[in-house]
Write a structure and sequence with these properties.
homodimer, 427 residues, alpha+beta, BirA Bifunctional Protein, domain 2, Rossmann fold, 2 domains, 9-stranded mixed β-sheet, 5-stranded mixed β-sheet, 17 strands, 20% strand, elongated
């Protein structure tokens, strides 16, 4: 045993685990491609200031940050959005809008370890820059939903809960929340599901200074679980009505795409992060057993602040850890058993050279091929072929080499056939 | 413009650059697959001690190392081999040999910046563990050569220069080098091509304390450019003869694979790293304009030291930076222009919903599809389709929607055809 171990919270990906990760990342890439998104990447190490600018100085305690040998304050990236803002800011002028980009960075956070929580994960980041219309929100939501559908998950397995910060704002103002208490109220109602009505009203009147009446009105907002119910209750307020119309349009577009079953209106989705400005959403497993699978929304002000370019923007992040748990729960992880197309056997040392020639020819034709590094009996080589999951075994004895053929056994059926080497090598 | 920039020596991968990186990494993966190698990965952050154990304390000045918030001394990985040794050491007992693994880590080195030298790069690492026979060396060399052939490079573009540390050792001993001066002599002859005969002899007699005669004999070794010439000159020494026979066997295997033109015997390939124990090689562009494209060899003692498991091992590293320069020089970089399979056009707002349905149906069938987020005239939408490199444009007007068809234009030929939507959606 080595005296060294991986750092706590960091994963080793042995081939079986890597195969699952490759399946997840590969599926994300495939769906992104269908949606016309282009992949980008940035450095895993960035100036510390980039993250402080976006999230405030409190973020530093969660970062892998240090002073590099050139005296620069740097941090391993805890999220991708600041890098995206920086990169888009540097070139946005020259790129046609909307910009549809995605990335699959590994992200790092120094969290106090609990419940096997990791300190790194891979996260799909998919963003649309330069489009303020609601069609972009529908596109983003559809992409998030299809990312999961592509793994074989259905509406029975997950749901996207969708709200809009502008709608929530209009409703809170309508209920009598003072404008300067909005942020505080967002933070309080974000915990809505975990706290009772009494406790919420106490916090709204206490911490946010709302009147008893306004606090009650705020809590009542969240009793409405359908868009129609909200319209019936508050639709007379023109600001609320305008926001409801936008949300309804988004849902109609998802309906047109055949995805309406996957999205549910839910005003309790606030998303703590201060920078969201419009439609926000989170994807959850329907059994409610796991943390959010995905979260995102519109953040129209961030690029100006961090990237120096004033572009509306929206996007989501989807990590590999919760998704993997969900796929495992539902029996949707891929087969990771080894397999190769061919195993080539030289019967004796004399056929060794011909065997190497066949091995290389098959590989050049695109097949995956294995063979034994040591001269062994045919039986032992056959065993090795089975262990490697070979689909076919090509045996070369003296007769076969003389005749320019190989004796090819299809392992699944046991069928054997003499095949001209020339035919085997045809691409 | 953003006030933030990437750190010096770190690259942003905008979509065009990312596409080239994806081409390089994708080609590596494809060749590794054909050779039956399995992909693995480890953490980009490891205990500092892991690298000190392998390379000595001098390595620290080149590392991105720091103390994490838990008081651990850590470093961003400067190379993959220690992680491989650690991971293999932890599980080697349970894995059938030979182990054929590869990885494509991003690696980090704090080097004083010069000539645009980068501080990060991606490096293919391909290793075989648990096989001491020369067939594994031939397999490794063949894989290195095929990694480049797969990009369209030929024997006119690159060559693998191959030596053997055991052969060199036997020759140096034969020439009269004292055993305890071997390491020093390796280091001196490693610079052979850059220094003249006089200077070399001066260093061999001065620094390594060789006699004039031995120093002359050492320098003479490197005048032999062919295996046969070395055999003729030194083959009477039984140790040299045994090493020559092994090398000849390796070359014969590469000949059988049809790759003999890509490898050249070259005793000047020493590879500075102290841990190589057998066949060593480097791949260079034939014009000699670039740094080495790839380097590797056999390191039979390292796993025991770092990984705690005594397995013979061999492997190579191939970075993305020099390779990319070579591909650019030879006009072998891939096309990175955008393209999508379909662009869907709604003639008016009334067809919007049908268009979204078609968009999603086509995506579900596996096509990449774009459309406009805003309602615009058909002409403008056609222009957008061209800009996105759409292969086909599907137009939906009122008539088409009523008839359940789309008017499909193939952009390359200009041909237009009314196609039932059902037919378009067939996978």
């Amino acid at each position: 045993m080595s005296k060294f171990k991986a750092l706590p919270g960091f994963r080793d990906f042995y081939p079986d685990d890597f195969a699952v990760r490759a399946h997840i990342v590969g599926t994300w890439r495939e769906v992104a491609r269908r949606y016309g998104f282009q992949e980008y990447d940035g450095p895993p190490l960035e100036p510390l200031e980039l993250y402080v600018e976006k999230s405030g100085p409190e973020i530093v305690q969660q970062l892998y940050n240090f002073t590099d040998k050139g005296g620069r304050e740097v941090a391993m990236r805890p999220e991708m959005t600041p890098t995206l803002a920086r990169m888009a800011g540097a070139r946005a002028g020259g790129i046609p809008k909307p910009i549809k980009w995605f990335s699959v960075p590994q992200l790092f956070r120094y969290e106090r370890q609990q419940r096997g929580r990791l300190r790194e994960h891979f996260q799909l980041n998919l963003d649309i820059l330069g489009e303020e219309g609601v069609a972009a929100d529908a596109e983003l939501l559809a992409a998030a939903v299809d990312m999961l559908r592509a793994f074989g998950l259905t509406a029975a397995d997950f749901v996207a809960r969708v709200s809009d910060r502008r709608l929530l704002r209009a409703l809170l103002l309508h209920a009598g929340t003072p404008e300067d208490q909005l942020t505080l109220v967002y933070n309080i109602v974000d915990k809505l599901e975990r706290e009772g009505r009494e406790r919420l009203i106490a916090r709204l009147t206490g911490e946010a200074g709302l009147t008893e009446e306004a606090a009650g009105a705020v809590v009542d907002i969240f009793r409405h679980r359908e868009l129609d119910a909200v319209r019936e209750a508050y639709g007379a307020d023109p600001e609320v009505a305008a926001e409801l119309a936008r949300m309804a349009e988004c849902f109609a577009m998802l309906e047109a795409m055949g995805l309406r079953d996957y999205v549910r209106f839910d005003l309790t989705i606030v998303r703590g992060l201060a920078y969201y400005t419009g439609i926000v959403f989170e994807l959850f497993d329907t059994r409610g057993e796991l943390r959010a699978i995905c979260g995102g929304g519109r953040y129209d002000d961030l690029l100006k602040r961090v990237g120096g370019t004033d572009l509306p923007a929206l996007g989501f992040g989807m990590g590999d850890v919760v998704l993997r748990e969900l796929l495992a729960d539902r029996g949707l992880l891929p087969e990771t058993a080894r397999r190769v197309d061919f195993y080539v056997i030289a019967v004796t040392e004399a056929e060794r050279s011909a065997a190497l020639s066949l091995v290389h020819g098959l590989r050049d034709a695109g097949h995956s091929v294995e063979y034994g590094f040591r001269v062994q009996g045919v039986g032992k080589q056959m065993k090795a072929a089975s262990a490697l999951g070979a689909a076919r075994v090509a045996v070369l004895g003296a007769d076969e080499v003389a005749a320019g053929v190989a004796n090819v056994k299809t392992m699944e059926t046991g069928e054997e056939r003499r095949v001209p080497v020339e035919e085997l090598l045809r691409p």
